[in-house]
Design a protein that fits this description.
The structure holds 2 protein chains of 2 kinds. Chain A contains 10 helices and 10 strands. By secondary structure, chain A is of the alpha/beta class. Chain A has a domain of 178 residues: 3-Layer(aba) Sandwich (Rossmann fold). In chain A, the strands form 2 sheets. A 6-stranded mixed β-sheet of chain A has the order 6-7-8-3-9-10, with helices on both faces. The model of chain A has no long low-confidence stretch (mean pLDDT 92). Chain B is globular. By secondary structure, chain B is mainly α. Chain B is built from 7 helices and no strands. Chain B has a single domain, classed as Phosphate transport system protein phou homolog 2, domain 2 (Methane Monooxygenase Hydroxylase, Chain G, domain 1, Up-down Bundle), CATH 1.20.58.220. The chains are: A alpha/beta, B mainly alpha. Chains A and B meet through helix 8 and helix 10 of A and helix 3 of B.
Amino acid sequence: MSEQIKVKMRGENVCVHYGEKQALFDVNLDIGTNQVTSLIGPSGCGKSTFLRCLNRMNDTIDICRVTGDLTLDGQNIYDRAIDVVELRARVGMVFQKPNPFPKSIYENVAYGPRIHGLTRDKTEMDEVVENSLKRAGIWEEVKDRLDQPGTGLSGGQQQRLCIARAIATKPEVLLMDEPCSALDPIATAIIEELIDELRENFTIAIVTHSMQQAARVSQKTAFFHLGKLIEEGDTEEIFTNPQNKKTQDYITGRIG
Amino acid sequence: MASTSSGHIVSSYEEELIELTRLTSEMGGMVEQLVISATDALVRVDHEAARKVVSDDRLIDEKQRQIDELAVSMIARRQPMASDLRKIVGSIHVATDLERIGDMAKSVGRRTIQIGGQRLSNQLYAGVKHMSELVLAQINKALDAVTTLDDVVAVQICDADEEVDALYMSLFREFLTYMMEDPRNITDCTHLLFCAKNLERAGDHATNIAEAAYYIKTGRNLPAELDARDDD
Protein backbone atom coordinates (compact mmCIF):
# COMPACT_ATOMS: atom_id res chain seq x y z
CA MET A 1 0.00 0.00 0.00
CA SER A 2 2.87 2.37 0.74
CA GLU A 3 3.58 2.65 -2.98
CA GLN A 4 0.40 4.64 -3.58
CA ILE A 5 0.78 6.90 -0.55
CA LYS A 6 2.48 10.19 -1.33
CA VAL A 7 4.99 11.45 1.20
CA LYS A 8 3.77 14.67 2.81
CA MET A 9 6.59 15.21 5.28
CA ARG A 10 9.93 13.48 5.41
CA GLY A 11 12.59 13.40 8.08
CA GLU A 12 16.09 12.29 7.06
CA ASN A 13 18.91 11.73 9.53
CA VAL A 14 17.18 13.98 12.02
CA CYS A 15 19.24 14.59 15.15
CA VAL A 16 18.17 16.85 17.98
CA HIS A 17 20.31 18.10 20.85
CA TYR A 18 19.11 19.90 23.92
CA GLY A 19 22.35 21.54 24.92
CA GLU A 20 24.85 18.73 25.45
CA LYS A 21 22.20 16.04 25.56
CA GLN A 22 21.23 14.31 22.35
CA ALA A 23 17.49 13.59 22.24
CA LEU A 24 17.12 12.17 18.71
CA PHE A 25 19.56 10.01 16.76
CA ASP A 26 19.42 9.85 12.96
CA VAL A 27 15.69 9.45 12.61
CA ASN A 28 14.37 8.67 9.12
CA LEU A 29 10.60 8.78 8.94
CA ASP A 30 8.00 9.62 6.31
CA ILE A 31 4.57 11.01 7.08
CA GLY A 32 2.17 9.89 4.34
CA THR A 33 -0.42 12.19 2.79
CA ASN A 34 -3.93 11.80 4.21
CA GLN A 35 -2.74 9.19 6.62
CA VAL A 36 -2.62 9.12 10.37
CA THR A 37 0.85 8.29 11.65
CA SER A 38 1.20 7.40 15.32
CA LEU A 39 4.41 8.01 17.20
CA ILE A 40 4.67 5.75 20.24
CA GLY A 41 7.30 4.92 22.82
CA PRO A 42 8.12 5.34 26.51
CA SER A 43 8.51 8.76 28.12
CA GLY A 44 11.64 10.52 26.98
CA CYS A 45 12.01 8.40 23.84
CA GLY A 46 11.98 11.42 21.53
CA LYS A 47 8.56 11.01 19.94
CA SER A 48 7.33 14.46 21.00
CA THR A 49 10.69 15.96 20.06
CA PHE A 50 10.32 14.55 16.56
CA LEU A 51 6.74 15.80 16.32
CA ARG A 52 7.85 19.27 17.36
CA CYS A 53 10.51 19.28 14.64
CA LEU A 54 7.76 19.00 12.05
CA ASN A 55 6.55 22.57 12.60
CA ARG A 56 9.73 23.90 14.21
CA MET A 57 8.18 24.21 17.63
CA ASN A 58 11.64 23.33 18.95
CA ASP A 59 12.80 26.76 17.72
CA THR A 60 11.14 28.18 20.81
CA ILE A 61 13.67 26.34 23.00
CA ASP A 62 16.98 28.24 23.01
CA ILE A 63 19.31 25.33 23.66
CA CYS A 64 17.65 23.08 21.10
CA ARG A 65 19.62 22.26 17.96
CA VAL A 66 18.12 20.33 15.03
CA THR A 67 20.21 18.75 12.26
CA GLY A 68 19.31 16.59 9.30
CA ASP A 69 16.65 17.21 6.67
CA LEU A 70 12.97 17.83 7.30
CA THR A 71 10.82 18.50 4.28
CA LEU A 72 7.21 19.44 3.59
CA ASP A 73 6.21 18.54 0.03
CA GLY A 74 9.90 18.20 -0.73
CA GLN A 75 10.76 21.66 0.58
CA ASN A 76 13.25 21.95 3.45
CA ILE A 77 11.35 23.49 6.35
CA TYR A 78 14.54 24.54 8.13
CA ASP A 79 15.60 26.54 5.06
CA ARG A 80 16.41 30.15 5.87
CA ALA A 81 13.87 31.35 3.31
CA ILE A 82 11.03 29.65 5.18
CA ASP A 83 8.69 31.89 7.13
CA VAL A 84 8.12 30.00 10.36
CA VAL A 85 4.75 31.61 11.00
CA GLU A 86 3.57 30.53 7.58
CA LEU A 87 5.01 27.05 8.15
CA ARG A 88 2.97 26.71 11.34
CA ALA A 89 -0.13 27.80 9.48
CA ARG A 90 0.49 24.90 7.09
CA VAL A 91 1.47 22.50 9.88
CA GLY A 92 -0.95 23.06 12.75
CA MET A 93 -0.74 21.65 16.23
CA VAL A 94 -3.01 20.43 19.00
CA PHE A 95 -1.52 19.97 22.45
CA GLN A 96 -1.98 17.57 25.33
CA LYS A 97 -3.88 19.97 27.53
CA PRO A 98 -6.68 21.90 25.85
CA ASN A 99 -5.42 25.50 25.79
CA PRO A 100 -8.13 27.78 24.42
CA PHE A 101 -7.36 31.50 24.40
CA PRO A 102 -9.09 33.45 27.18
CA LYS A 103 -11.44 34.83 24.56
CA SER A 104 -14.84 33.97 23.18
CA ILE A 105 -15.43 30.71 21.35
CA TYR A 106 -15.78 32.70 18.13
CA GLU A 107 -12.51 34.59 18.65
CA ASN A 108 -10.62 31.40 19.45
CA VAL A 109 -11.35 30.12 15.96
CA ALA A 110 -11.22 33.48 14.17
CA TYR A 111 -7.82 34.46 15.56
CA GLY A 112 -5.66 32.40 13.21
CA PRO A 113 -7.43 33.24 9.95
CA ARG A 114 -7.38 36.93 10.97
CA ILE A 115 -3.64 37.20 11.66
CA HIS A 116 -2.91 35.26 8.48
CA GLY A 117 -5.33 37.49 6.52
CA LEU A 118 -7.24 34.52 5.19
CA THR A 119 -10.64 36.26 5.10
CA ARG A 120 -11.83 39.51 3.54
CA ASP A 121 -14.89 40.39 5.57
CA LYS A 122 -17.10 39.42 8.50
CA THR A 123 -19.36 37.16 6.40
CA GLU A 124 -16.38 35.16 5.19
CA MET A 125 -15.00 34.94 8.71
CA ASP A 126 -18.37 33.71 10.01
CA GLU A 127 -18.24 30.95 7.41
CA VAL A 128 -14.70 29.91 8.36
CA VAL A 129 -15.65 29.82 12.05
CA GLU A 130 -18.80 27.82 11.40
CA ASN A 131 -17.07 25.36 9.07
CA SER A 132 -14.15 24.82 11.42
CA LEU A 133 -16.43 24.23 14.39
CA LYS A 134 -18.57 21.87 12.29
CA ARG A 135 -15.55 19.86 11.13
CA ALA A 136 -14.32 19.65 14.69
CA GLY A 137 -17.70 18.20 15.63
CA ILE A 138 -18.59 20.85 18.17
CA TRP A 139 -20.80 23.28 16.20
CA GLU A 140 -24.12 21.95 17.47
CA GLU A 141 -22.93 22.30 21.07
CA VAL A 142 -21.68 25.89 20.82
CA LYS A 143 -23.56 27.61 17.97
CA ASP A 144 -25.87 29.46 20.39
CA ARG A 145 -23.09 30.73 22.65
CA LEU A 146 -20.27 31.74 20.35
CA ASP A 147 -19.70 34.90 22.37
CA GLN A 148 -19.06 33.04 25.59
CA PRO A 149 -15.50 32.27 26.78
CA GLY A 150 -13.85 29.16 25.36
CA THR A 151 -12.44 28.40 28.77
CA GLY A 152 -15.99 27.78 30.05
CA LEU A 153 -16.40 24.62 27.99
CA SER A 154 -15.81 21.08 29.25
CA GLY A 155 -12.38 19.50 28.72
CA GLY A 156 -13.50 17.47 25.72
CA GLN A 157 -15.26 20.47 24.19
CA GLN A 158 -12.19 22.64 24.78
CA GLN A 159 -10.02 20.12 22.97
CA ARG A 160 -12.42 20.07 20.02
CA LEU A 161 -12.39 23.88 20.08
CA CYS A 162 -8.59 23.74 19.88
CA ILE A 163 -8.87 21.37 16.92
CA ALA A 164 -11.33 23.80 15.28
CA ARG A 165 -8.81 26.58 15.94
CA ALA A 166 -6.01 24.49 14.44
CA ILE A 167 -7.91 23.65 11.26
CA ALA A 168 -9.32 27.18 10.77
CA THR A 169 -6.09 28.27 9.09
CA LYS A 170 -6.56 25.36 6.64
CA PRO A 171 -3.33 23.57 7.50
CA GLU A 172 -2.13 20.67 5.38
CA VAL A 173 -0.71 18.75 8.31
CA LEU A 174 -2.08 18.46 11.83
CA LEU A 175 0.26 17.51 14.65
CA MET A 176 -1.35 16.16 17.81
CA ASP A 177 0.62 15.70 21.00
CA GLU A 178 -1.37 13.35 23.24
CA PRO A 179 -4.65 15.10 22.39
CA CYS A 180 -6.79 12.77 24.51
CA SER A 181 -4.67 12.19 27.60
CA ALA A 182 -6.73 14.65 29.66
CA LEU A 183 -10.10 13.45 28.36
CA ASP A 184 -12.63 10.85 29.49
CA PRO A 185 -13.43 7.82 27.27
CA ILE A 186 -16.47 9.42 25.63
CA ALA A 187 -14.64 12.65 24.76
CA THR A 188 -11.73 10.48 23.58
CA ALA A 189 -14.02 8.47 21.29
CA ILE A 190 -15.42 11.70 19.83
CA ILE A 191 -11.90 13.01 19.12
CA GLU A 192 -10.86 9.68 17.59
CA GLU A 193 -13.91 9.68 15.34
CA LEU A 194 -12.96 13.22 14.40
CA ILE A 195 -9.36 12.22 13.58
CA ASP A 196 -10.74 9.59 11.23
CA GLU A 197 -12.88 12.18 9.44
CA LEU A 198 -10.14 14.81 9.34
CA ARG A 199 -7.85 12.36 7.57
CA GLU A 200 -9.79 12.97 4.35
CA ASN A 201 -8.46 16.52 4.16
CA PHE A 202 -5.42 16.57 6.39
CA THR A 203 -2.28 14.62 7.04
CA ILE A 204 -2.04 13.77 10.71
CA ALA A 205 0.81 12.84 13.02
CA ILE A 206 -0.16 11.94 16.57
CA VAL A 207 1.89 11.25 19.66
CA THR A 208 0.08 8.98 22.08
CA HIS A 209 0.85 6.96 25.17
CA SER A 210 -2.21 4.85 24.61
CA MET A 211 -1.28 1.83 22.53
CA GLN A 212 -4.93 1.09 21.92
CA GLN A 213 -5.44 4.60 20.62
CA ALA A 214 -2.53 4.26 18.20
CA ALA A 215 -3.96 0.94 17.06
CA ARG A 216 -7.42 2.44 16.62
CA VAL A 217 -6.70 5.70 14.82
CA SER A 218 -3.57 5.30 12.73
CA GLN A 219 -2.56 3.61 9.52
CA LYS A 220 1.16 3.86 10.24
CA THR A 221 2.92 3.50 13.55
CA ALA A 222 6.47 4.44 14.48
CA PHE A 223 8.08 3.17 17.68
CA PHE A 224 10.76 5.28 19.34
CA HIS A 225 13.12 4.17 22.10
CA LEU A 226 15.92 6.19 23.72
CA GLY A 227 15.92 8.74 20.92
CA LYS A 228 16.05 6.21 18.11
CA LEU A 229 13.38 5.11 15.68
CA ILE A 230 13.26 1.37 16.34
CA GLU A 231 10.54 0.21 14.00
CA GLU A 232 7.89 1.71 11.77
CA GLY A 233 5.28 0.16 9.53
CA ASP A 234 1.61 -0.55 8.97
CA THR A 235 -0.21 -0.19 12.27
CA GLU A 236 -1.79 -3.62 11.99
CA GLU A 237 1.58 -5.26 11.48
CA ILE A 238 3.19 -3.38 14.37
CA PHE A 239 0.48 -4.44 16.79
CA THR A 240 0.03 -8.04 15.69
CA ASN A 241 3.49 -8.99 14.51
CA PRO A 242 6.26 -6.53 15.36
CA GLN A 243 9.68 -7.54 14.08
CA ASN A 244 11.82 -5.90 16.74
CA LYS A 245 12.04 -7.28 20.26
CA LYS A 246 12.05 -3.78 21.79
CA THR A 247 8.79 -2.98 20.02
CA GLN A 248 7.31 -6.28 21.11
CA ASP A 249 8.35 -5.76 24.74
CA TYR A 250 6.96 -2.23 24.80
CA ILE A 251 3.57 -2.86 23.25
CA THR A 252 2.96 -6.05 25.21
CA GLY A 253 4.00 -4.41 28.49
CA ARG A 254 7.15 -6.41 29.15
CA ILE A 255 10.35 -5.32 30.77
CA GLY A 256 12.72 -4.44 27.94
CA MET B 1 10.80 -12.64 15.16
CA ALA B 2 10.54 -11.00 18.53
CA SER B 3 10.94 -13.41 21.40
CA THR B 4 8.59 -13.63 24.33
CA SER B 5 11.07 -14.71 26.95
CA SER B 6 10.91 -11.72 29.26
CA GLY B 7 7.99 -11.50 31.66
CA HIS B 8 5.19 -8.97 31.84
CA ILE B 9 5.49 -5.95 34.08
CA VAL B 10 2.03 -6.87 35.36
CA SER B 11 2.67 -10.25 36.97
CA SER B 12 -1.00 -11.29 37.12
CA TYR B 13 -1.10 -10.96 33.31
CA GLU B 14 1.92 -13.25 33.04
CA GLU B 15 0.21 -15.73 35.38
CA GLU B 16 -2.89 -15.76 33.20
CA LEU B 17 -0.82 -16.49 30.09
CA ILE B 18 0.85 -19.38 31.93
CA GLU B 19 -2.56 -20.62 33.06
CA LEU B 20 -3.79 -20.51 29.46
CA THR B 21 -0.82 -22.64 28.38
CA ARG B 22 -1.45 -25.04 31.24
CA LEU B 23 -5.16 -25.43 30.40
CA THR B 24 -4.33 -26.03 26.72
CA SER B 25 -1.77 -28.72 27.58
CA GLU B 26 -4.19 -30.31 30.01
CA MET B 27 -6.95 -30.39 27.42
CA GLY B 28 -4.49 -31.79 24.86
CA GLY B 29 -3.58 -34.63 27.23
CA MET B 30 -7.25 -35.41 27.87
CA VAL B 31 -7.98 -35.54 24.15
CA GLU B 32 -5.03 -37.81 23.41
CA GLN B 33 -6.18 -40.16 26.16
CA LEU B 34 -9.72 -40.18 24.82
CA VAL B 35 -8.55 -41.14 21.32
CA ILE B 36 -6.41 -43.93 22.81
CA SER B 37 -9.34 -45.21 24.93
CA ALA B 38 -11.74 -45.02 21.99
CA THR B 39 -9.38 -47.00 19.78
CA ASP B 40 -8.77 -49.61 22.50
CA ALA B 41 -12.49 -50.01 23.08
CA LEU B 42 -13.06 -50.41 19.35
CA VAL B 43 -10.32 -52.98 18.81
CA ARG B 44 -11.52 -55.05 21.75
CA VAL B 45 -15.20 -54.31 20.95
CA ASP B 46 -15.55 -53.37 24.62
CA HIS B 47 -18.96 -51.73 25.03
CA GLU B 48 -18.34 -50.74 28.62
CA ALA B 49 -15.13 -48.88 27.77
CA ALA B 50 -16.84 -47.32 24.73
CA ARG B 51 -19.64 -45.96 26.93
CA LYS B 52 -17.04 -44.35 29.17
CA VAL B 53 -15.44 -42.70 26.13
CA VAL B 54 -18.81 -41.26 25.14
CA SER B 55 -19.44 -39.81 28.59
CA ASP B 56 -15.85 -38.57 29.14
CA ASP B 57 -16.15 -36.29 26.11
CA ARG B 58 -18.17 -33.96 28.34
CA LEU B 59 -15.04 -33.25 30.42
CA ILE B 60 -13.28 -32.08 27.28
CA ASP B 61 -16.15 -29.77 26.37
CA GLU B 62 -15.94 -28.33 29.86
CA LYS B 63 -12.20 -27.72 29.47
CA GLN B 64 -12.81 -25.89 26.20
CA ARG B 65 -15.32 -23.63 27.95
CA GLN B 66 -12.70 -22.82 30.58
CA ILE B 67 -10.15 -21.87 27.93
CA ASP B 68 -12.69 -19.76 26.04
CA GLU B 69 -13.71 -17.93 29.19
CA LEU B 70 -10.15 -17.17 30.21
CA ALA B 71 -9.24 -16.03 26.68
CA VAL B 72 -12.28 -13.74 26.36
CA SER B 73 -11.68 -12.32 29.81
CA MET B 74 -8.03 -11.59 28.96
CA ILE B 75 -8.96 -9.87 25.71
CA ALA B 76 -11.49 -7.74 27.57
CA ARG B 77 -9.27 -6.81 30.51
CA ARG B 78 -5.72 -6.81 29.13
CA GLN B 79 -6.08 -5.58 25.55
CA PRO B 80 -3.39 -8.04 24.46
CA MET B 81 -0.99 -7.05 21.71
CA ALA B 82 1.40 -8.77 19.32
CA SER B 83 2.67 -12.17 20.55
CA ASP B 84 0.24 -12.16 23.50
CA LEU B 85 -2.69 -11.48 21.18
CA ARG B 86 -1.57 -14.27 18.86
CA LYS B 87 -1.15 -16.66 21.73
CA ILE B 88 -4.64 -15.98 23.07
CA VAL B 89 -6.33 -16.17 19.67
CA GLY B 90 -4.23 -19.26 18.87
CA SER B 91 -5.31 -20.93 22.11
CA ILE B 92 -8.98 -20.41 21.21
CA HIS B 93 -8.31 -22.11 17.85
CA VAL B 94 -6.39 -24.98 19.44
CA ALA B 95 -9.15 -25.57 22.01
CA THR B 96 -11.79 -25.60 19.26
CA ASP B 97 -9.88 -28.21 17.26
CA LEU B 98 -9.16 -30.29 20.35
CA GLU B 99 -12.84 -30.26 21.18
CA ARG B 100 -13.63 -31.51 17.67
CA ILE B 101 -11.07 -34.32 18.04
CA GLY B 102 -12.87 -35.22 21.28
CA ASP B 103 -16.12 -35.41 19.29
CA MET B 104 -14.43 -37.71 16.78
CA ALA B 105 -13.31 -40.03 19.59
CA LYS B 106 -16.84 -39.96 20.99
CA SER B 107 -18.23 -40.98 17.59
CA VAL B 108 -15.83 -43.92 17.52
CA GLY B 109 -17.18 -44.85 20.96
CA ARG B 110 -20.77 -44.65 19.74
CA ARG B 111 -19.98 -46.84 16.71
CA THR B 112 -18.25 -49.38 18.91
CA ILE B 113 -21.41 -49.79 20.95
CA GLN B 114 -23.27 -50.59 17.68
CA ILE B 115 -20.87 -53.36 16.73
CA GLY B 116 -22.33 -56.70 17.93
CA GLY B 117 -19.09 -58.60 18.42
CA GLN B 118 -15.78 -59.16 16.75
CA ARG B 119 -16.76 -61.10 13.65
CA LEU B 120 -14.42 -59.42 11.19
CA SER B 121 -10.81 -60.38 10.69
CA ASN B 122 -8.23 -58.95 13.07
CA GLN B 123 -6.46 -57.44 10.13
CA LEU B 124 -9.27 -54.90 9.65
CA TYR B 125 -9.15 -53.83 13.28
CA ALA B 126 -5.37 -53.64 13.07
CA GLY B 127 -5.72 -51.32 10.09
CA VAL B 128 -7.92 -48.91 12.07
CA LYS B 129 -5.56 -49.16 15.05
CA HIS B 130 -2.62 -48.30 12.82
CA MET B 131 -4.55 -45.32 11.53
CA SER B 132 -5.23 -44.25 15.11
CA GLU B 133 -1.54 -44.47 16.02
CA LEU B 134 -0.60 -42.33 13.06
CA VAL B 135 -3.19 -39.70 13.98
CA LEU B 136 -2.16 -39.74 17.65
CA ALA B 137 1.44 -39.10 16.64
CA GLN B 138 0.20 -36.12 14.62
CA ILE B 139 -1.86 -34.77 17.53
CA ASN B 140 1.07 -35.25 19.90
CA LYS B 141 3.52 -33.42 17.63
CA ALA B 142 1.01 -30.64 17.04
CA LEU B 143 0.52 -30.11 20.78
CA ASP B 144 4.30 -30.06 21.26
CA ALA B 145 4.58 -27.47 18.49
CA VAL B 146 2.04 -25.31 20.34
CA THR B 147 3.98 -25.58 23.61
CA THR B 148 7.44 -25.07 22.15
CA LEU B 149 6.26 -22.69 19.39
CA ASP B 150 8.10 -24.72 16.76
CA ASP B 151 7.12 -23.47 13.31
CA VAL B 152 9.35 -25.99 11.48
CA VAL B 153 7.62 -28.99 13.06
CA ALA B 154 4.27 -27.32 12.34
CA VAL B 155 5.02 -27.44 8.62
CA GLN B 156 6.11 -31.10 8.86
CA ILE B 157 2.82 -32.01 10.53
CA CYS B 158 0.82 -30.40 7.74
CA ASP B 159 2.84 -32.28 5.15
CA ALA B 160 2.44 -35.59 7.02
CA ASP B 161 -1.37 -35.37 6.88
CA GLU B 162 -1.17 -36.79 3.35
CA GLU B 163 0.02 -40.07 4.86
CA VAL B 164 -3.10 -40.24 7.02
CA ASP B 165 -5.30 -39.54 4.01
CA ALA B 166 -3.52 -42.22 1.97
CA LEU B 167 -3.95 -44.77 4.73
CA TYR B 168 -7.65 -43.97 4.95
CA MET B 169 -8.05 -44.51 1.20
CA SER B 170 -6.34 -47.90 1.36
CA LEU B 171 -8.51 -48.95 4.32
CA PHE B 172 -11.55 -47.81 2.39
CA ARG B 173 -10.67 -50.11 -0.51
CA GLU B 174 -10.00 -53.00 1.85
CA PHE B 175 -13.39 -52.61 3.53
CA LEU B 176 -15.11 -52.49 0.15
CA THR B 177 -13.52 -55.80 -0.79
CA TYR B 178 -14.77 -57.41 2.41
CA MET B 179 -18.26 -56.09 1.92
CA MET B 180 -18.39 -57.40 -1.63
CA GLU B 181 -17.10 -60.79 -0.53
CA ASP B 182 -19.80 -61.33 2.05
CA PRO B 183 -22.79 -59.00 2.47
CA ARG B 184 -23.11 -60.10 6.12
CA ASN B 185 -19.94 -58.05 6.76
CA ILE B 186 -21.56 -54.85 5.53
CA THR B 187 -22.92 -53.59 8.88
CA ASP B 188 -19.72 -54.03 10.86
CA CYS B 189 -17.52 -52.93 7.96
CA THR B 190 -19.54 -49.72 7.65
CA HIS B 191 -19.14 -49.00 11.36
CA LEU B 192 -15.40 -49.59 11.15
CA LEU B 193 -15.15 -47.49 8.02
CA PHE B 194 -16.89 -44.60 9.78
CA CYS B 195 -14.46 -44.99 12.69
CA ALA B 196 -11.55 -44.76 10.26
CA LYS B 197 -13.14 -41.69 8.72
CA ASN B 198 -13.52 -40.10 12.16
CA LEU B 199 -9.85 -40.70 12.87
CA GLU B 200 -8.90 -39.26 9.51
CA ARG B 201 -10.85 -36.11 10.40
CA ALA B 202 -9.13 -36.00 13.78
CA GLY B 203 -5.89 -35.90 11.76
CA ASP B 204 -7.21 -32.85 9.89
CA HIS B 205 -7.80 -31.12 13.20
CA ALA B 206 -4.23 -31.98 14.23
CA THR B 207 -2.99 -30.06 11.19
CA ASN B 208 -5.23 -27.13 12.21
CA ILE B 209 -3.53 -27.17 15.60
CA ALA B 210 -0.14 -27.18 13.88
CA GLU B 211 -1.27 -24.19 11.83
CA ALA B 212 -2.27 -22.39 15.02
CA ALA B 213 1.22 -23.08 16.43
CA TYR B 214 2.73 -21.63 13.28
CA TYR B 215 0.53 -18.54 13.56
CA ILE B 216 1.35 -17.99 17.24
CA LYS B 217 5.06 -18.21 16.48
CA THR B 218 5.27 -16.24 13.23
CA GLY B 219 2.07 -14.19 12.92
CA ARG B 220 1.65 -15.65 9.44
CA ASN B 221 -0.97 -17.91 7.94
CA LEU B 222 0.45 -21.35 7.10
CA PRO B 223 -2.20 -22.65 4.63
CA ALA B 224 -1.73 -19.53 2.51
CA GLU B 225 2.04 -20.01 2.54
CA LEU B 226 1.78 -23.73 1.73
CA ASP B 227 -0.50 -22.92 -1.20
CA ALA B 228 2.07 -20.45 -2.47
CA ARG B 229 4.83 -23.05 -2.00
CA ASP B 230 2.89 -25.78 -3.80
CA ASP B 231 2.12 -23.47 -6.70
CA ASP B 232 5.83 -22.99 -7.35
